[in-house]
Amino acid sequence: MGDQKNLILAAVLSFLVIGLWEMFVIAPEREEIRRNAEIQAEIAQEQGIDGVPVPVGEGNLAAEVTALLGRDDALARTERVAIDAPRVDGSISLTGGRIDDLNLKDYRVTLEDDSPEVTLLSPRESGDAYYTLFGWAGGADMPGPRTEWTLTEGDTLDLGKPVTLSYDNGTGLSFTQRYEIDENFLFTVTQTVTNTGDEATVLSPYGVIARHGEPETEGFYLLHEGAIGGFDGVTHSIDYDDFEDFEMNAAERARVEKFEATDNGWLGITDKYWMTALIPETHKPFTGAFKLAGQANAPIFSADVRLPAVSVAPGGSETAVIHLFAGAKQADVLRGYEETLEAESFYDAIDWGWFFFLTKPFFWILNTIYKLVGNFGVAIIILTVIVKTVMFPLAYKSYVSMGRMKKLQPQTEKLREKHKDDPQSMQKAMIELYRKEKVNPASGCLPILLQIPVFFALYKVLFVTIEMRHAPFFGWIEDLAAPDPTSIFTLFGLLDWNPPVFLMIGIWPIIMGITMWLQMQLNPAPPDPIQKKIFAWMPVLFTFLLGSFPAGLVIYWTANNVLTIIQQSTIMKSQGAKIELWDNIKRLFTRQKSES
């Protein structure tokens, strides 16, 4: 019995830790991010306003920013080439040839119908500058951040409609940058340099992703946001805070961490749902680097790709190709690019976590079911059925044991009464009874313990995958990755006030609590009075704890409880145990009626 208590205590404590963390750490931060998103959506619908100048560092990218502007004003400062592709829109600045204006057509900031598209890239003069830059290094008069390019092909970048920019440095070198885009989020930038002079020139093609300022992260220690890269199949993840630990490079005026790739690789900057990444041509070596420039109050984070130097002979030309991923971390899309571009570990840009061996197959099953039924909430319920089916052999043994224990309860009560003054004798007698009847009291904990890794894995899937973002179920559940928006303390929306996070007890958490109470009525009553009180209050406690969890997780737990009730009652009844569930419900309502 001691082992059983320890197992139950371990399971309960595990859920308590998760629940309290969700309630008092993640839920408040999620609410803050939600409010910020609403504010940003309002700002995005208004005209930008000039901001105040901010101090910046000197040299390289840091010297390019002198003041913060509203987005519209920042975009209006330079001539631009429009981007209007199937899944993104925006523009390319002819100054520097930057891709610095990019919105994601399929994703909105909030659930509101008039919510603006998610903005991924922004010009360098704006408060949230985030852009890409391509060029050649090694010679004099190379095109740089302030170079004015000329549009020589196309007028709008779209699928099957490339655009080309040209620049002549006037000293014997001419450059072109050809931009193409596919049906998703992949840009292909082809750079060509032609030597019209009399001497050979050695140059190195490069690509840069730069982000000014540290963004507000959503990871809550549960997923990685910051620099990320895969070099010959080895993935590296670096948080924004870790940039400070890089070695200072005086020549580049930045803190730098370099990686060498001999065959394939990629690197970039990732958010929870979005990412930018540079992917050089496969089977070509390159040097990747993460850098921190600027000043402490105006940091500039960058991910750089430097390809091997090439010698451009007089009258000759050289070409370099670098792919740019800029979009949503959609699992199927990332997997497709990993295969077609041979970019090893690109799929792992999604932070599957330590339990990737569970989260990856769980997501694959959910996504496969979703493609058949068209609703992730329904897919979660079907996944619950699959999990219960797979675990049925173990659950069967557990429920058989619990049924036998419930059948033995009159005998165990007599033994407790007989040996109430001698705990050791009582323990010995109970063990002998269980051995005689072939009952394992600890096996009743097995269903609880088996649910813990499943719970963790599904929680991770709901938290990190963009497929769950804004995914509706039915009725009032419009986002399975967010908590149930209703609350009993607002009479489910009738009262106009915002209760604290721990009082946001919606309809689904209440249903989950009721099904949990019903399921627990099937279990043998705990012998210890304190343990019995703990179990009696557990449904109430878990109702409050799971109130701030993603609705998809609460739906999973509710479906699991319902299936457990059906399985457990059927199996226990087959063992001759009396099912007192409905008697307890009747007794509860009878007691309430008599008290009133």
List its salient traits:
single chain; 596 residues; alpha+beta; Beta-galactosidase, Chain A, domain 5; 2 domains; 9-stranded antiparallel sheet; 7-stranded antiparallel sheet; 21 strands; 25% strand; disordered N terminus
Can you describe this structure?
The chain is an alpha+beta fold. It folds into two domains: 2-31 and 360-595, no CATH class; 47-351, Beta-galactosidase, Chain A, domain 5 (Distorted Sandwich), CATH 2.70.98. It has 13 helices and 21 strands. The chain has helices spanning 2-44, 71-76, 331-340, 356-373, 376-390, 392-407, 409-418, 423-437, 446-464, 507-520, 529-546, 551-574, 581-595, and strands at residues 80-84, 88-93, 99-108, 117-121, 130-137, 150-153, 156-157, 163-168, 173-181, 186-195, 201-212, 226-231, 234-239, 247-249, 254-261, 265-270, 274-280, 286-295, 298-306, 310-312, 317-328. Strands 6-8-9-10-21-17-16-12-13 form a nine-stranded antiparallel beta sheet, with no helix packed on it. β18 and β19 (298-306) form a beta hairpin. The longest helix has 43 residues, at 2-44. The chain is elongated and about 105 Å long. It starts with a helix and ends with a helix. Residues 1-8, 37-60 and 62-66 have low confidence and may be disordered.
Q: What topology emerges from the helices and strands here?
A:
Blueprint: H1 2-44, H2 71-76, E1 80-84, E2 88-93, E3 99-108, E4 117-121, E5 130-137, E6 150-153, E7 156-157, E8 163-168, E9 173-181, E10 186-195, E11 201-212, E12 226-231, E13 234-239, E14 247-249, E15 254-261, E16 265-270, E17 274-280, E18 286-295, E19 298-306, E20 310-312, E21 317-328, H3 331-340, H4 356-373, H5 376-390, H6 392-407, H7 409-418, H8 423-437, H9 446-464, H10 507-520, H11 529-546, H12 551-574, H13 581-595
Parallel strand pairs: 1-7
Antiparallel strand pairs: 1-2, 2-3, 3-4, 5-11, 6-8, 8-9, 9-10, 10-21, 11-19, 11-20, 12-13, 12-16, 14-15, 15-18, 16-17, 17-21, 18-19
Helix pairs in contact: 1-11, 4-5, 4-9, 5-12, 6-12, 7-8, 10-11, 10-12
